[in-house]
Amino acid sequence: METIYLLFITVLAAFLGFELIRKVPATLHTPLMSGANAISGITLVGALVAAGGEDGTLTTIIGTVAVVLATVNVVGGYMVTDRMLAMFKKKAEKKSAKDA
Amino acid sequence: MNSAILINATYIVSACLFILGLKLLSHPSTSRKGNTVSAIGMFLAVVITLLDKDIISYHWIITGIAIGGVIGAIFAKKVEMTSMPELVSLFNGFGGLASLAVGWISVLTLANQSVSELARGVVEGSSNQGLSLTISNLSIIIGGITFSGSVIAWGKLSGKMTSGAITFAGQRWVNIALILALVAVSYQLTQTPDNANLIYSIIVLSVVLGVLSVIPIGGADMPVVISLLNSYSGIAATAAGFAIGNNILIVAGLLVGASGIILTNIMCKAMNRSLVNVLLSGFSKPIDTSMKVEGELKALSPEDAFYVLEAAQSVLVVPGYGMAVAQAQHAVKELQELIESNGGEVVYGIHPVAGRMPGHMNVLLAEADVSYDLLLEMDAVNQRMETFDVAIVIGANDVVNPAAKEMKGSPIYGMPVIEVERARTVFVLKRTANAGFAGVDNPLFFKDNTRMIYGDAKDTLNSVIREFGDD
ipTM, 2 decimals? Predict the structure, then answer.
C-alpha cells in the first residue's frame, strides 16, 4: 500500500512538473536549468538522516560526503541562479535605475 | 503530536514553495522572486529534517553543510557567465553523486535489517525488501550515471578534454554488455544484500556506463546532453526518495526530472532530431564530402562594415557559441547602443540550440545589460527577416546554415534555422574560413549578399565601434 501511495504522488508530481515548466520562456532556460538543479539537491534531506544516524562508521562517512556534495549543489545552484536572474532587465527598468 | 507528522506537514509546505517558485520563474520580471521562494522551500525542508528522531549526532552534519556551503558559494560567485554550462554540469554531477550515496546507505541499512531479521528468524516481508533493495539500487545506478556523465560533460565543455565525439570499435556492444552486467549484479544484490562487493561492482559499472554514454557526443549536441543529465539528477533524487520513503525527495526530484525532459525535447526539436539520434550521433558515418559547396568568399574590412552599419535602419544580431568564446557580448551591446543613438534598431535572434546549453546566449546578453525584450526567438525574426538591413552573425554557424533547407543529405538537413540569407546584407564574423562544429560547409558564406569579416569577434566589433567614435 505504501508503494502505491508513493507512486500516486509520483504521477501527480510528474504531471505538475510538465505543466509548470512548459510555460517558461526560452530566455530563461539557463536559469531554469540551474534553479532546477538546485532543487535536485533535495537529496540533502536524505543525506542528513544518514549522516546523523547511529548506523556505524561507513554510513556516517558516506552520509557526510553526501551532505557536502548536496550542499554544494543547493547553495551553489541557488546563488548562481540568483546572480543570473538579477541580470535580466528590461529597458525601462534600467533607465529608471540610472536616473535614480 | 509526533515529529513525523510535523516533518511531513512541513514537506508539504516546501513542495508548495518549489511549485510556486517554478511558476514565478516563467516570467523574467518575477523570476528572481521565484528562485528565492524555491530556496526558502529548500531551507524549510532541510531545517525540519534535522528534527528527525533518527538523527542523534549533529557535528558531522554541521561540518558537511559548512564545507559544502562554502564550496558552493565560491563556485557561484567566481564563475564567468560564459562558463555556466560547465558549472551546471558540475553541480549536476555532485547531485548525482549525493543520490548515489543515499542509495548506497539505504542498501546498507536494508542489509543490516535482513541480517538481524534472519537472526531472529523473521521470514515475512522478504518480497517487500526485494523491492526496496531494487529501488535503492536504482538510486545508486542513476546517481552513478549522472555523476560520471556530468563530469565528462564538464570536461568537454571546459576544454579539459576534446569536445569532439570519442568512439571506439564495438562501443555499442560494450554498452550493452555493461547494462546486462548491471542487471545481473543488481539481481544478485536483492538475493544477498550484505555482500559489499556487489555494491562496489554496481557503482563501478554505472560510473563506466555514464562515461561511455557521454564521450561519443560532440560539442554542438551538448545542450541536449546537459538537459538530459539535469533530468537524470532529478530522477536520481526521486529514486533516492523512494528508497528512503521520503515524499519531498520524490516530488522535488520529479519537478526537476520533468524540467530536464522538457528542455531535452525542446533542444531535440530545435535540431529536428530524435533523442536516440543525438545520443548515438558519434557512431554515424562521416559526412559525405561530395556535398561541399564551392564559391567565392567575399571578405570585408571592419571599416567598410562600419559604413554599412551607419546607414542601416534595422540590424539583426545572431549570436552563437563563438560569441561566448570571444567574450564579445559587451562589445555587441556597445555596438547596439551606437546604432541606436544613430537612429537605428537592433534586435537579437536567438536559436534554441545556440551555445552550449539552453538559453546560454540569453544569459550572456543579459550580463551585458541587453534588455530581454530585444531577445527574439527564431520564428519571430524569421517572419520579418526581409525588413533587416543587416544581419550580423557572431560566432554561429549551423544555426544559420541554409544547407538545412537547401541540401538534402546534409547532416543538418531539416533543422529549423534562422534564415539570415533573406536579410539585405549578411555579415559573418568568423575567426577563420574553416567549417563550423558539425563539419559542414556553410553555403551562406557564398551567398551574394554575404560578407565575411575574419578575426576575433571581439576585436572586429571593437574596430567597428572605434569607427563610430571617429565619426
Answer: 0.89
